[in-house]
Amino acid sequence: MSASHTPAVDVLVVGDANPDLLLTGDTVPRFGQAEQLLDAAELVLGGSAAIVACGLARLGMRTALVSVVGRDGFGDVVLHRLEERGVDVSAIVERGDVPTGLSVVLAQPGDRAILTLPGTIPLLDAATVRAAVERLRPRHVHIASYFLQPSLAAELPSLLGWLGDRAVTTSLDTNWDPAERWDGLSEVLPSLTVFLPNDEEARAIAGSIADRPVDSLDDAGAILSALGCRVVVKAGAEGGIAYEDAARTAGAPGLVLDVVDTTGAGDSFDAGYLAAMLSGVGTEEGRLRWAATAGSLSVRGIGGTAEQATEAELSTALV
Ligand SMILES: Nc1ncnc2c1ncn2[C@@H]1O[C@H](COP(=O)(O)OP(=O)(O)OP(=O)(O)O)[C@@H](O)[C@H]1O
Ligand SMILES: [Mg+2]
User: Does residue 264's CB lie within 6 angstroms of at least one atom of ligand 1?
Assistant: First the structure.
């Protein structure tokens, strides 16, 4: 392979990057100008794409992120946290006219409410992604948070075709649809290499495609994988389950450990799966074990990135 064809990065991650302000303690708001005192407040790196990118970098993958942030304090926080983790931020667009997205997370034991300002998050478009691909020449492109980025979502079928023509493999984690319509995926999945929903998202999207309620995960996996991509479903502490050509092919459990915070566990799972794929792990069960282990190790700390697995921690846990 000549130097000009050597990929500059292993993975280009596409999507949302924003700070999450995590509040714990007496977080159920009371109106009437009441003042409540909190136990803790932490500003952490959020956005599914940003967390996946940090997870991949920790696992030794050369990783870049393409995203849009505002030219403001929260945008600076995002760029700084990514750079600290060794993620290439050269393709991130800074906009002076729109604020960086922000989520305020009101945490209670076992549950949370999330208040999100979309800000720059919906602004990413396919032209920006194509330019980043041409410059960074990734082996793989991962797309996060489909439903938060309508412009990118509308252009995704043609973008995936363009990437396929260049022999770039692709993956998508839609995450939750705030509108709960779950539209558009029947045009996307046929051109995708790997689809990475969680179990609720898989059932909702399969229901939208089949135009009937889909209650069983195996039914959902069959409907989605019949469209032509590999489907890898996250199932919380149960781990991950894979489907191909309308049949279940493998499963791997998560680790049993003390859970501190599951925010972003799905993103660390995605990072583990993609790192396994790009490192040449040859069996679906092996790739799922990397994924479920990386997801589980991330729940040891607050926020999505603090306790993401290093390569060494992952190998130790996989023995
Ligand atoms: N309670 C838990 N104990 C152990 N491992 C867990 C737990 N919750 C999640 N995990 C690990 O993290 C992976 C992904 O978690 P989950 O299924 O919650 O993804 P998700 O719903 O996409 O998460 P999110 O979108 O909030 O990041 C699981 O497959 C598992 O490996
Ligand atoms: Mg998820």
Answer: yes
Domain of 164 in residue numbering reads as: 3-17+48-100+118-318
pLDDT in tens, 51-68: 999 999 999 999 999 999
Ligand 1 close to Cβ of residue 295 (< 6 A): yes
For residue 100, give both structure tokens.
């960086």
Residue 247 lies in a domain: yes
- CA distances to 16, 56, 140, 169, 255 from 318, in Å: 30, 17, 24, 25, 10
Would residue 10 count as lying in a domain?
Answer: yes
Count of domains for the chain: 1
Using a 6 Å cutoff on CB, does residue 175 contact ligand 1? yes
Q: Exposed, middle or buried by CB within 10 Å (0-12, 13-18, 19+), for 216? A: exposed
User: Which residue matches tokens 């890898």?
Assistant: 232
- Are 193 and 164 contacting, i.e. CB atoms less than 8 angstroms apart? no
Total-model pTM = 0.96
Give CA separation, 183 vs 47, 172, 256, in Å. 21, 14, 35
- CATH code at position 291: 3.40.1190.20
